[in-house]
Design brief:
49% helix; mainly alpha; elongated; 109 residues
Length: 109
């Protein structure tokens, strides 16, 4: 079957409200729905809480990564290595292994 045999479905078969860009009113409506959902579940964490959450996620990710590679470090040991920016190999600082981490400040998560 050649590609010319395929008949495209015209866009005008869809309801008008689902075609094209959403109106500003629709966008604000969706935003308000999202904000209501956030309020319903208790809101967003404070910046300090968020920093702690992301730090814990980073430590868990590093621990899981080292476990997959065969290391036998416990989570607490991984946390110490991350905090101190200690090396994991001959020339690779542990803090440079994590994507997006600034090697010059291994203690900032």
């Amino acid at each position: 079957m050649a590609s010319t045999d395929v008949t495209p479905v015209p866009d005008n078969n869809r309801p008008a409200e689902t075609r094209g860009r959403m109106s500003r009113q629709e966008i604000y409506g969706r935003l308000e729905e999202g904000l209501e959902e956030i309020r319903r579940v208790g809101g967003l964490p404070s910046p300090l809480e968020a920093e702690d959450i992301w730090g814990n996620i980073w430590q868990q990710e590093a621990h899981n990564s080292t476990t997959i590679e065969g290391n036998t470090l416990i989570l607490r040991e991984v946390a110490v290595l991350l905090r101190e920016g200690r090396a994991i190999g001959i020339s690779t600082p542990f803090s440079t292994v994590m994507v997006g981490q600034d090697a010059s400040s291994p203690t900032s998560f």
